[in-house]
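Email to the structure team, subject: Probable glycine cleavage system H protein model.

Hi all, the expression group asked for a predicted structure before they design truncation constructs. Nothing fancy, just the tokens so they can compare against earlier work. One-line instruction: predict Probable glycine cleavage system H protein, return tokens.
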Amino acid sequence: MSFDVPDDLRYRESHEWIDPETGRVGISDFAQDELGDVVFVELPSEGDAVDAGAEFGVVESIKAVSDLYSPITGDVVAVNEALFDAPELVNEDPFGDGWMLELDVDEGDLDDLLSADEYRDQIA
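Reply from the structure team: attached below.
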């Protein structure tokens, strides 16, 4: 099976992605497929601080409960509140309407993340 891995994003080995331009964060197409139908998402509040590699929330599916890990250190500048009423957006559009939060981006933090090609190799 082939998964969507947008070239303009950076990835954690734990399957979270970040858009370096906007600071928008979510989980990959591969991760949402592995989880199955997402039924609940727990996210931090706007203004909360998160650390790179630290847990920032939880996604619950019919198969499992999985922790979410922040790709970078930063402050939460936006939260996708639509997910609280429609967690299935994570499955339907993981790189679009299924985004989870936005962080303020410091370019240096992106150096430890995987490129799209490196992430494709990981999930192959």
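The mean pLDDT is 96. The helical segments are 29-35, 82-85, 89-92, 116-123. Ping us if the truncation boundaries need rechecking.
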